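Researcher: Let's run the pair from yesterday's discussion. Sequence first, then tokens, for each.
Model: Starting with the first of the pair.
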Amino acid sequence: MVTADPRDAMTDESASSIDEPGPDAGDSGAPEPPGRADPVPGGPRWYRARVRRLGPIYGLALPAVTGIAALAALVFGEGRTAAVLALLSGVVAAPGLLVVGAPIADQGTYPLAILGSVPFWVFLGWVAARRASRHPITAWREFWMEMGLLYIAVATGAVAGVLIAAIRLGERLL
């Protein structure tokens, strides 16, 4: 005895009605799922998004303040102490200065080295923002803690680089 396949019993009209959605299929009027709604201003998701969006730009604040301090020490200071302070704070604010060989190298390369340090600090701001926003509740406090740790690490490396160069050059650098 041969049984008929149920798919053979379907007509072309019934097959096409199965494949095509009805007129109300896409417009049910149901609210969007909770994960897709816009974040509430001032809420946790809003703060996380804000920290992630603005963190790379705010990452330039610490090196900018350090760079202004270096410039002020250079302009207003006198003597060896002001020069050492300007050098150390300058290479912390713009680590690219070490790459071009500051303070021994040609001063014409300094603006390019300072400009080259900006993407570095923006990247570190992005890293700090990502690290700070990995927690469900994120505020600027977490960002500044992460950025502060990265800033201290860069400062330690830059100062160590200058000190090693000073030792290698016989302390003529400082």
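Model: Moving on to the second of the pair.
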Amino acid sequence: MRPNLGMTVILYTNRFLYYELKPIHLSLISYIRITLFQFCSTIMALRLFLFLLINFGALALGGLATSDGVVSFWYQNLNQAPWTPPGWVFGAAWTFIMITFSVYMAYLWPWVKNHKLLVALFTLQWILNIGWNPMFFNYHQVTISLAIITALTLLVAAIMITYYAESKSKSLLILPYFIWLLIATSLNAYIYLYN
């Protein structure tokens, strides 16, 4: 029996494609993967930069609105909670929190389906965060400040819970913000109760 010429051509063509073009095929796929990774990394870096800019902008605006802040005569003469940290801790904590929160938001953004809701929650968080500083340090409105920081704490908890399904282990990045807000709320509440 004579081998079928058509089958022989197909067999050799398949071998050629598999063995001879396999390195070219794999390097093309690798190139595409690397290019996509670099593109995604660039987009991620831009998102991270944007969130860092927005969040540190909030810190700067809040700092401008606090006057002397924790070193002010008014604040130093309040009955403060025994667990009140030294003044330098506030700056270090907020710097760390804004970095981790920015990374969290940059990772979260592509996974969220409803960007309008995320932007609304983020914007409200931003306004409350900035709004607390002048209300507490400039206007000495301890009760209103307590309401603001309580709302901010609940909002950050809501963001963490709402987007847990999308962020999974990345939710740990928003945890320092939430924990710090619990501490700050307790400090504000102590001042409200004992002054």
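Researcher: Give me one sentence on the second I can quote.
Model: The helical segments are 5-20, 22-64, 73-76, 87-108, 115-138, 142-162, 164-167, 175-194.
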